[in-house]
Amino acid sequence: MTGKTPMIARRLAVLLLTLAVLAAAGATTLVLARDRVLASVAGTGSEASATLLAVDGRIWADGVRDPASGGPLDGSERFRIGSVTKTFVATVVLQLVDEGRVALDATIEKYLPGVVRDGALITVRQILQHTSGLPDHMSSPGWSTNRWRGDDRFRDVTPARILQEAFTRAPHFPPGAGFRYSNTNYVVAGLLVEAVTGRPYAAEIEQRILEPLGLTGTSLPGSDPRVPEPAVRAETVLDDGRRVDVTEQNESLDGAAGEMISTHADLATFLDALLGGGLLTPQTLAEMRATVPMGAGFHYGLGLQRFDLPCGGSLWGHGGELLGYVTYAFRRADGRTLTLLRASADDDGFLRFAAVATAAFCLTRT
């Protein structure tokens, strides 16, 4: 996911939010101030139908599961996680590295001959870290799942067609010469998994991650446009003022870059297993956590984002955004977790995430 707020404005807003959150402590205890701020920030506001915040398993929820029929959230709901999918895909690629079947600094041409433009110059590491320079297919009109696409949201799109569209655009820079977030990279990563294993990347994620960890609320829907119940449904307002339900859409246009559905509990379990060393060797996990700057307090590793807290320390995880849903799923080194979902919101949720992260991890003695 990429933010829409200008960088300088973001930094200023985070500073102001930090000062406001810290001032909220006043003369009371830090923990009480933290809980009060979290409860306040978890409010949906007029621009969202639902907000779900989970910190260390404790839930703050506001709004409704379904804007049309109502019904309060209870934290059990499934929702689209968008680009948090990338962390699952990168984990499988890195497991293949641990197995000696993929080399991070080998070219993508080695595994996908003739598939990726300039593939002989682009490494697996650069694909996972968005330093390949590959253009983003979602920059083309009608190709973004962050935008209303009418009936096109139900059509199947193949990875080959996605790459064909992406390669109508010029590279952002020579491979390794910079950082530019591009969903096309993870369409390629999904194809890499399939080329090496002989199985769909979804099947590899299910077998290697979902089943061993018991993540029964997490799924890869492929062409199925539905979100399994209990579901958080979402809406958006079109330019002509109509409000439309955006819950159901065929996620093949996202594919390995963002198709997955999950729950806050499953995301916390996954991050515990990954960052706690249960899915990768220490050496490969260290490679995953080697980052380049993204801006606004974020750094990017291999399918993993680092967010630096204003009071010191860092959170590790990923954000995800697609039409109707914004998700942030992060974990601190001491095992504390934070998941934030915003449904039907009209922004990328960054400022709210910065506020809850500051309150959750800076207003505490632990």
Short description:
It comes from Pseudonocardia ammonioxydans. With 366 residues, this protein is α+β, with helices and mostly antiparallel strands.
Report what the structure shows.
The protein has 366 residues and is an alpha+beta fold. Helix content is 33%, strand content 16%. It has 11 helices and 12 strands. The strands form 3 sheets. An 8-stranded antiparallel beta sheet has the order 2-1-12-11-10-9-8-7, with helices on both faces. A two-stranded antiparallel ribbon has the order 3-6. A two-stranded antiparallel sheet has the order 4-5. A hairpin with a 4-residue loop joins β11 and β12 (337-343). α1 runs parallel beside α11, α2 (30-41) packs antiparallel against α11 (350-362) and α6 (159-166) crosses α7 (184-197). It starts with 6 loop residues before the first helix and ends with a helix.
